[in-house]
Amino acid sequence: MTTTIHIRKAPGVWSVRSGGAVLGESSNALELSEGDLAPVIYFPREDIAMALLDRTDKTTHCPHKGDAVYFSIVNMSTTTENAVWSYEDPKADVAAIKGHLAFVVSESVKVEQL
């Protein structure tokens, strides 16, 4: 079975929040669609408050995208473990997501189009 991945500029402005704090807003986000999975918004690092993210030891491997590294979100009230991932050296077919971050959407992490 072949997985098809499409990457396009996400329309409009996107925001990511955690624990009431705005981690970032971007008009340059990317939308990655992979097979039947829900689309994922990838934010450029320069649009995210990196001071609120701590890199963890967690890594995962995707045969289509490569190796992902993870970050926890640390704000004044909580730490959300491994809530952010990034492909530091993605495969050539998805090179557009290099330098971008994606977020695990949950009760404490919200990704929204403004």
From TrEMBL:
Pfam families: NTP_transf_9 (PF04248). This is DUF427 domain-containing protein. Residues 15-104 form the DUF427 domain. InterPro entries: DUF427, DUF427_sf.
